[in-house]
Q: What sequence folds into this?
């Protein structure tokens, strides 16, 4: 099975550890964290070197010790109401070689406003040389601590606009499932902790342990992109009624030839104002937005109908199948036929 990393990714990590030594992992607990990220990561790391050995009938060799630490040592009350017993407090326990920040499940702004002491602690661990990794919206805590400034990062695609607004100094790549820059790693959407975990286990325990664990957990460790899971809805999170009306019109006309003159006439704006306001509202040019709208329609057809790719191409407004296929793969990370085989109902 192909692992989630490559030599190219691995060399970007700083301070590679001794892969034969027991590595310590600290998971940072905070109110409103996503419980599944915490418990899933604990299971994944605790069973590295163990589950595969049991399957093979050989002697287990546990590679990681994992602790859940909270600010005061109290249980971590997660978003779903479950309280997870902590092993202690951040101040009283030595930090791990690897520090994991789980998904923020509650309101992001509220969590960041209350996270001052945790942010300071994360900064201390970065200075001390720990590898620090976040999952999903946990990247907001790393961003708020200033650990991502000038670095490549990712977060959940649905919160990427908010992330960019709040942290303009971060090189945000929401299309990527996992990013690594120096000793900082980030994973994208909610269950991307699987991919992040396998990558980090390879980094700390070696490729063989990571491969065996991926096989034991039946993890598809070849994923690279969040693009197949993204949606157009976030492009409507703005207050420009004229642009919203134009988006509504495009929803019903994307399959037709659409020119800039058509958009100017429909919106009542000059071409210059149209481009400026459309970009400010959606983050994209009208041409790029139309492309994404057509790709979204193609996704729906590939997921829900048996239409051949050539027919899907024509239904969404393209004539050339080869050009459409290249565009579809560039946007989603997958060719149309592969996308259908993975997401078709």
A:
């Amino acid at each position: 099975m192909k692992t989630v990393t490559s030599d190219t990714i691995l060399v970007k990590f700083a301070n590679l550890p001794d892969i034969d030594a027991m590595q310590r992992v600290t998971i940072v607990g905070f109110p409103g964290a996503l419980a599944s990220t915490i418990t899933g990561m604990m299971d994944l790391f605790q069973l590295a070197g163990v589950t595969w050995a049991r399957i093979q009938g050989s002697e287990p060799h546990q590679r990681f010790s994992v602790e859940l630490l909270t600010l005061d040592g109290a249980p971590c009350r997660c978003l779903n109401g479950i309280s997870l017993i902590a092993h202690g407090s951040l101040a009283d326990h030595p930090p791990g070689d690897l520090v994991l920040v789980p998904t923020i499940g509650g309101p992001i702004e509220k969590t960041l406003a209350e996270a001052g002491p945790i942010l300071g602690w994360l900064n201390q661990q970065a200075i001390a040389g720990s590898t620090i990794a976040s999952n999903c919206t946990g990247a907001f805590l790393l961003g708020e601590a200033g650990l991502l400034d000038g670095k490549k990062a990712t977060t959940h695609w649905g919160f990427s606009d908010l992330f960019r607004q709040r942290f303009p100094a971060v090189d945000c790549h929401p299309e990527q499932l996992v990013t690594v820059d120096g000793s900082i790693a980030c994973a994208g959407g909610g269950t991307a902790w699987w991919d992040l975990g396998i990558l980090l286990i390879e980094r700390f325990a070696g490729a063989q342990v990571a491969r065996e664990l991926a096989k034991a957990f039946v993890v598809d460790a070849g994923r690279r992109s969040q693009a197949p899971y993204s949606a157009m809805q976030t492009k409507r999170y703005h207050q420009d009624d004229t642009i919203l009306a134009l988006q509504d019109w495009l929803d019903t006309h994307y399959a037709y030839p659409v020119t800039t003159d058509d958009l100017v006439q429909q919106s009542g704006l000059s071409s210059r104002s149209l481009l400026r306001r459309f970009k400010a509202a959606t983050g994209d040019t009208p041409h790029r937005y139309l492309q994404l709208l057509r790709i979204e329609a193609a996704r729906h057809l590939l997921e829900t109908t048996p239409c051949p790719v050539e027919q899907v191409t024509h239904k969404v407004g393209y004539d050339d199948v080869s050009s459409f296929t290249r565009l579809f793969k560039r946007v989603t990370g997958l060719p149309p036929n592969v996308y259908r085989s993975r997401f078709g109902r």
The radius of gyration is 23 Å. The domain at 7-226 is CATH 3.40.50.880 (Rossmann fold).
